[in-house]
Amino acid sequence: MAWEFRCSQGIVHVSARSQANFPGKRNERQKGPALLQGDQLAPNTDAFTVVILGVPRGGTTMVAGVAQRCGLFIGDNLPANLEDQRFVRNDASGLDEIVSQSNQQRSVWGWKYPRAADYLSELLPKLRNPRLVMIWRDPLAIASRGVSRGDTVERSLRRVASLQSQNIRLIQEARCPILHVSYEKAISDPLPFIESLATFIGGSPPADMQELLAFMEPGSYKPVQGEQLSAPRPAPLALLVHPEPAASSTDHGDPTSAPAVSEEKRERSGNAMPLKGKTLILGVGAQRCGTTWLHDYLSGHPQIFASPIKEMHFFDAHLGVQDKEKWTSKFDGRLQRFARRDSVGDARELRTALEERAKMHDDPSTYLEYFSSRAGDKPFLCEITPSYGLLSAEQFKWVKDFFAPSGVTLKLVFLMRDPIDRHRSFAQLRARGSGRSVDFLRSLSLNQAVARGRYDLVLERLRSVFEPEQIITAFYEDIFANPDIHLRKIMDRVGIEYIEPKIAERKNAAPPRETPLTESEISAAMTVFRPVYEYVNREFAREKPATWRA
Questions:
Q1: Whole-angstrom Cα distance, residue 170 to residue 300?
Q2: What residue ranges in 224-299 does DSSP mark as E strands?
Q3: What pTM, to 2 d.p., does this model score?
Q4: C-alpha–C-alpha distance, residues 154 and 495, integer Å
Q5: What's the CA gap between 282 and 290, in Å, rounded?
Q6: Which of the residues in the chain have pLDDT under 50?
Q7: Contact, 385 vs 284, CB < 8 A?
Q8: Which residues pair with 471 in a beta bridge?
Q9: Where in the chain is the domain with CATH 3.40.50.300?
């Protein structure tokens, strides 16, 4: 089978059976963007596991996307960074069962996680015929991200060198085939890279080679399976003597890139300082942890203007974490329903808010004007969208930079709940919405649902961008058990007067589950969420509610 497609070199013919990079015996004189380490690939091996790794910001998502398009299964319903959340962890605890289940479902499968070397030394002997795809990238290009956040060049480079040294130790110990990929060479010479990778994973290049080449272009990262496309990322703000060209400074290692607000709009917002002296309470999660109740409580406070649209879904949709078109359609649908009836009072206010929300993606400064035009003399503002917890660290940095010219003080609120209870509540609500019975075990394979409960990852992303005094955490169980202590703590951290809440009714609550979780369901969920329990036990040893499962 062969393909003909157009690229900058003209019309190119590609054969799916080219084995140029993998000769019949080991050849240390291989050249090109991908080099094979280890014994030749056994042609009759029909069951094996592929792990794609490297360094964060090192091009692993680009390589994973190519592998996926060449036929490698790396997970269902993946987020934009193509990382199966079950494998995003620091150690191998609990992975045996996940690997065993995956082996039963598929003969060839794999996953992508840049820092898989953290646990692969322990896990490799337990994998079925493992194959590693190791991506290497210019350390300075990777380090530029840290420099753009205010870190020194020396410290950023040292961090990259440490991670790459860890990968070198792994490949010295590993007794399995390893495909080494040069990110820069793969981008500049994609055809041999695609063929080498396809051969290594037992797949073949896709029929639509044009789309694949477009996907690989720096700044044009396009997730598969209908994920929201991200806009090109601007060049990093690295304070380097010789910064890289903008094209090569873009990497595919983060979930999405952050589209920049135009300088004109930033300047306009900066000069006006529309929210100077005000504090915005920005709720970033977690879903099913009492955020709707908290929004209603804050809405009733005389010093707070809370958005009449509780979940604005501005940042997650604008930055490509959620489907922008989907949310635009949902808000348009709500507006259409208002058009069929008279709107007075609160309904008119909500209708006006929806009309303004529809304009925000075309002009992001409208988000700031939305609050400044409504707040009046109220010193506090509030918007809660749990999906914001899915933003990457880079996207949180975009949010921080977005607000900086406005003069507003940011307070980010993140609520937590026993991870298994939270996920069960999600599964129940999902089943109720679809009219189906609750399938708790299947819900554990939904990557975005699991990601919402990875408090460890969310908080580390927040902590990498915002100051400690800006991040406010609380526990769902404590707020409802003793609001006079725990809700008061939230209000004190925000800097606003505490008012006793009406705690009796919980908004948006899922119906009670008729039967408790089975031992097998709890065990499976504990495997998925063990890193969360360990993190909370370590970081919140004194605050964690005694009712948590671990």
A1: 56
A2: 279-283
A3: 0.67
A4: 38
A5: 14
A6: 1-29, 222-271
A7: yes
A8: 412
A9: 2-237, 263-314+377-539
| pLDDT value for 149 | 66
Q: What integer pLDDT is reported at residue 117 of this predicted model?
A: 95
pLDDT at 287: 96
Residue 310: per-residue pLDDT:
87
pLDDT at 261: 43
Amino acid identity of 543?
E
Q: What is the pLDDT of residues 492-518, one digit of tens each?
A: 999 999 999 986 655 566 556 557 899
Q: How far apart are CA 472 and CA 253, in angstroms?
A: 28
Note the pLDDT of residue 18. Answer: 38
Do residues 236 and 144 lie in contact, with contact meaning Cβ atoms separated by under 8 Å? yes
Tell me the CATH architecture of domain 263-314+377-539: 3-Layer(aba) Sandwich (3.40)
The per-residue pLDDT for 345 is 60
Q: Dig out the tokens for 544 from the structure.
A: 């964690």
Is the Cβ–Cβ distance between 168 and 216 less than 8 Å? no
Q: How far is CA 496 from the centre of its chain?
A: 32
List the structure tokens of 386: 């749990």
pLDDT value of position 218: 80
Q: What kind of fold does domain 2-237 have according to CATH?
A: Rossmann fold (3.40.50)
Rounded to whole angstroms, the Cα distance separating 425 from 428 reads 5
CA atoms within 13 A on the CB side of 526: 11
* Amino acid sitting at position 219: G
Other Cβ atoms less than 10 A from the Cβ of 118: the count is: 18
DSSP secondary structure of 433-471: HHTPPP-HHHHTT-HHHHHHT-HHHHHHHHHTTS-GGGE
User: Between vectors from CA 165 to CA 217 and to CA 533, what angle results, nearest 5°?
Assistant: 85
Amino acid identity of residue 381, one-letter, is L
Could you give the 3-state DSSP secondary structure of residue 381?
strand
